[in-house]
Design goal:
single chain, mainly beta, four-stranded antiparallel sheet
């Protein structure tokens, strides 16, 4: 059972940056594709970014392409989401998700971390 814990959320002004972290409970983390999803108030949960188990393939939603970067550190059992040039519409709860196929909702979820971007 893979357990995921997000951190790094908070309040930031438009144009600012935040880095989210998702720490996994076990070394088998390296076998999983990892995704970030987000859910804004009153909206459906949406895909943000994904990274293949070996880190050599990444995908982004069009809305964050060029601003967000996903990466993983296998030695630390952690996946990151660096968010730059943030916009008020990035405000959401961000969830880390682990699964088999990058970009497809996987079995394992973190508890979520709130990100709020003020204008």
């Amino acid at each position: 059972q893979l357990q995921l814990v997000e951190s790094g959320g908070g309040l930031v002004q438009a144009g600012g940056s935040l880095r989210l972290s998702c720490a996994a409970s076990e070394r088998s983390f390296s076998n999983y594709a990892m995704n970030w999803f987000r859910q804004a108030p009153g909206k459906e949960r949406e895909f943000v970014a994904s990274i293949k188990w070996n880190g050599d393939s990444v995908r982004y939603a069009d809305s964050v392409k060029g601003r967000f970067t996903i990466s993983r550190d296998v030695a630390k059992n952690t996946v990151y989401l660096q968010m730059n040039s943030m916009k008020p519409e990035d405000t959401a709860v961000y969830y880390c998700n682990g699964g088999v196929i990058p970009g497809i909702v996987g079995k394992y979820w973190g508890q979520g971390t709130q990100v709020t971007v003020t204008s």
